[in-house]
């Protein structure tokens, strides 16, 4: 039996029919096409599927979509938008959004720059991970970004120990965590500068 | 790794939930942080799930001088931030990871009755209770004490058709301190062994009552009253001595008196004798027995010190 549910995902209201057993992670990825949320272990250990539910990090693989009917969800796709600078500061190039024309012979020479400029600004946490090499293969990164975004909101100037505790529910098999801890410190700096 | 299909019920109030449970013999879904992994791994396949997440009345934390009553939908993180009970708050920081605690519930942890989990030990050491309700023409409730609630590993006294609606954690007596010490391979993992202690002292900082509950060393939380072993012990450092805490818990730099050390060690031995640890891939039974002794002594000392410090409060 299918259930009609409404989720507010990254600010947009989405209505979707799901069977009761649909995990929130699968609902986001398969039903809503938001494949930024990654699925690792699917039993709550790895933290890759962490999303924000009404602003708080939760395991989307340990949550049924029907249970969170009517609630707000932020995925990694929504972090950039959240952290984007105010509209007035965006470059004028954003008008080029619709400009696709793969293989067309009459491309404007300036197109690569336009494409660069329409990308939404990365959030401070995302920029800090990029700057500090807080990721390698990137599989665990969406979960870390959601976890750290909420963590720094609750604790804007954490110590090393608090960071390690805060990210203890997210596994990374590439980095050895040192650069992730650096990235969290850097994100805290960036957030402090920007507010 | 996908959960098997089930019929889904989403009652809006407790009465509707109880009527549904009386009809369908389903499993109750609250936070789902233990149930959904079991379903994902196909270790559980309930035909009916009764989702209580829409029953707002179950989200209440009700603190009175007698203690704190925690509703069935109170998430670990809500209880932690409410700070309604010092030992509960302390134990919650040891439960899994922040993302799990944002979803998992206090009462759910009790009903799951994992012998390696922290919250059953907290309820047991405090002599708390769990309120169960079922439908019999009307809602009928019963209050089950912790010593009868935990029946075996992953087995609680909740009967088919019953819903655990709340748990009650009694308040601490005056001049009482608590501690929760555990050893886990990583923070947030299930502990290899753990001990929570509740120690009451008199006006001269002498121990008058001491109880511990141990996790991971028996089929249910192992509660031991060690007042006989360490009653009357003078609490070292009670007069404001240095509190030095290292990565592995307290390091006593104040120089305990001979009699005090004897009392704590005797209490730790008494605790070891009551436990029945088992060997598994993580640790041998002998190592767990060793750990529980060390942790019992550490927890008792720290709880006693906190109790002594609370004398002036």
UniProtKB/TrEMBL annotation, chain A:
GO terms for molecular function: 2 iron, 2 sulfur cluster binding; metal ion binding; oxidoreductase activity. Pfam families: Fer2 (PF00111), Fer2_2 (PF01799). Gene3D superfamilies: 3.10.20.30, [2Fe-2S]-binding domain. Keywords: 2Fe-2S, Iron, Iron-sulfur, Metal-binding, Oxidoreductase. Residues 79-116 are annotated as: Disordered. CDD domains: fer2 (cd00207). InterPro entries: 2Fe-2S-bd, 2Fe-2S-bd_dom_sf, 2Fe-2S_ferredoxin-like_sf, 2Fe-2S_ferredoxin-type, Beta-grasp_dom_sf, Diverse_Oxidoreductases. Residues 3-79 form the 2Fe-2S ferredoxin-type domain. Pathway: Alkaloid degradation; nicotine degradation. This is (2Fe-2S)-binding protein. It comes from Nonomuraea deserti. The lineage of its organism: Bacteria, Bacillati, Actinomycetota, Actinomycetes, Streptosporangiales.
From TrEMBL, chain B:
InterPro entries: CO_DH_flav_C, CO_DH_flav_C_dom_sf, Diverse_Substr_Oxidored, FAD-bd_PCMH, FAD-bd_PCMH-like_sf, FAD-bd_PCMH_sub1, FAD-bd_PCMH_sub2, Mopterin_DH_FAD-bd. Keywords: FAD, Flavoprotein, Oxidoreductase. Pfam families: CO_deh_flav_C, FAD_binding_5. Residues 1-174 form the FAD-binding PCMH-type domain. The keyword Oxidoreductase applies. One of its GO terms (molecular function) is FAD binding. The keyword rRNA processing does not apply. This is Xanthine dehydrogenase family protein subunit M. It comes from Nonomuraea deserti.
């Amino acid at each position: 039996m299918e259930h009609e549910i409404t989720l507010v995902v990254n600010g947009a209201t989405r209505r979707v029919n799901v069977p009761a057993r649909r995990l929130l992670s699968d609902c986001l990825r398969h039903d809503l096409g938001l494949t930024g949320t990654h699925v690792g272990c699917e039993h709550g250990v790895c933290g890759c599927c962490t999303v924000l539910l009404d602003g708080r990090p939760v395991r989307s693989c340990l949550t049924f979509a029907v249970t969170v009917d009517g609630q707000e969800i932020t995925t990694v796709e929504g972090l950039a938008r959240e952290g984007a600078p105010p509209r007035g500061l965006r470059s004028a190039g954003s008008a080029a959004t619709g400009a696709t024309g793969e293989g067309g012979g009459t491309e404007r020479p300036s197109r690569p720059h336009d494409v660069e400029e329409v990308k939404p600004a990365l959030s401070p946490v995302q920029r800090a991970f990029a700057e500090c090499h807080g990721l390698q293969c990137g599989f665990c990164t969406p979960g870390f970004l959601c976890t750290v975004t909420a963590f720094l909101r609750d604790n804007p100037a954490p110590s090393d120990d608090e960071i390690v505790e805060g990210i203890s529910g997210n596994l990374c098999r590439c980095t050895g965590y040192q650069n992730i801890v650096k990235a969290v410190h850097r994100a805290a700096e960036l957030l402090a500068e920007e507010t | 790794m996908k959960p098997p299909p089930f019929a889904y019920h989403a009652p809006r109030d407790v009465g509707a939930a109880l009527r549904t449970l009386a009809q369908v013999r389903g499993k109750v879904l609250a936070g789902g942080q233990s149930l959904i992994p079991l379903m994902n791994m196909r270790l559980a396949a309930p035909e009916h799930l009764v989702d209580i997440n829409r029953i707002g009345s179950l989200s209440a934390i009700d603190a009175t001088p007698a203690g704190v009553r925690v509703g069935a939908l109170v998430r670990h993180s809500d209880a932690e931030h409410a700070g309604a009970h010092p030992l509960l708050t302390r134990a919650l920081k040891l439960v899994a990871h922040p993302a799990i605690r944002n979803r998992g519930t206090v009462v759910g942890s009790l009903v799951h009755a994992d012998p390696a989990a922290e919250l059953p030990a907290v309820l047991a050491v405090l002599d708390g209770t769990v309120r169960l309700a079922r439908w019999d023409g009307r809602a009928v409730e019963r209050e089950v004490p912790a010593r009868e609630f935990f029946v075996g590993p992953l087995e609680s006294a909740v009967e088919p058709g019953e819903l655990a609606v709340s748990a009650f954690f009694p308040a601490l007596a005056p001049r009482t301190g608590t501690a929760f010490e555990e050893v886990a391979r990583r923070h947030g993992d299930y502990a290899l062994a753990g001990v929570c202690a509740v120690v009451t002292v008199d006006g001269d900082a002498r121990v008058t009552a001491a109880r511990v509950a141990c996790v991971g060393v028996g089929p249910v939380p192992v509660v031991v009253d060690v007042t006989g072993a360490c009653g009357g012990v003078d609490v070292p450092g009670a007069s404001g001595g240095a509190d030095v805490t290292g990565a592995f818990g307290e390091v006593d730099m104040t120089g305990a008196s001979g009699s005090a050390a004897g009392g704590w060690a005797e209490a730790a031995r008494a605790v070891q004798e009551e436990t029945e640890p088992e060997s598994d891939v993580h640790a041998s039974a002998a190592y767990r027995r060793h750990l529980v002794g060390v942790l019992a002594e550490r927890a008792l000392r720290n709880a006693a010190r906190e109790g002594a410090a609370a004398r002036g409060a």
